[in-house]
Amino acid sequence: MNLELDAHDRKILALLQENARYSYSEIGRRIHLTSPAVAERIKRLEESGVIQGYSVRLNLRALGYSFEALVQVTVESHEALDAWAATRPEVLALHATTGNHCALLRLALKNPEHLQACLSSLGKIGKTSTAMVLSSHWEHRSRLPADQLG
């Protein structure tokens, strides 16, 4: 369903991307709508698929992960890679890609030995090339400015 977004819808989306825990009344106060009007618009945005869900950003270091790695993988069977990734809590993302590799994995790792164990396990289903993440900027850049939504 292709939904026409008006200025209020775009402002609601921008605010929810800023903080998905804003109350209807807080959003309404900021964009000059009543809470019921905001609730109705958000429900419509959810039902149309524009809003696909809500999530929590975790502090990986607080959970015991000391670094991240990006692992490019070349495999014969994407099903085997999907099955491997599905059982591994350290897999933050799995992207099918074009180019010299089939996929890109983003892993949260506790220590170098953890990385080594992951690479050893992955090596049984394909070839890997690994880069450690030194720092990240704009990681949640998927946010679109209100004037660009729609």
Condensed summary:
Helices cover 35% and strands 20% of the residues. It is built from five helices and four strands; from the N terminus they run H-H-H-E-H-E-E-H-E.
Question: In words, what does this structure look like?
Answer:
14% of the residues are buried. The chain has 150 residues and is α+β, with helices and mostly antiparallel strands. The chain is 35% helix and 20% strand. The chain is built from five helices and four strands. It has a four-stranded antiparallel beta sheet. The chain starts with 6 loop residues before the first helix and ends in a 17-residue tail after the last strand.
Order of strands across the biggest sheet? 2-3-1-4
The helix-strand sequence is HHHEHEEHE
The strand count comes to 4
Please report the distance between the alpha carbons of the first and last residues.
13 Å
Strand content: 15-25%
Mean pLDDT: 91
Proportion in helices: 25-40%
Determine the number of helices (DSSP H or I, runs of at least 4 residues). Answer: 5
Q: C-alpha Rg, in Å?
A: 20 Å
Structural class: alpha+beta
**What low-confidence regions span 5 or more consecutive residues with pLDDT below 50?**
none
Largest sheet report: 4 strands, antiparallel
What is the molecular shape? elongated
Keywords:
150 residues, alpha+beta, four-stranded antiparallel β-sheet, 5 helices, 35% helix, 20% strand
Helix-strand layout with pairing:
Elements: H1 7-18, H2 24-31, H3 35-47, E1 67-75, H4 78-86, E2 91-96, E3 103-109, H5 112-122, E4 126-133
Helix pairs in contact: 2-3
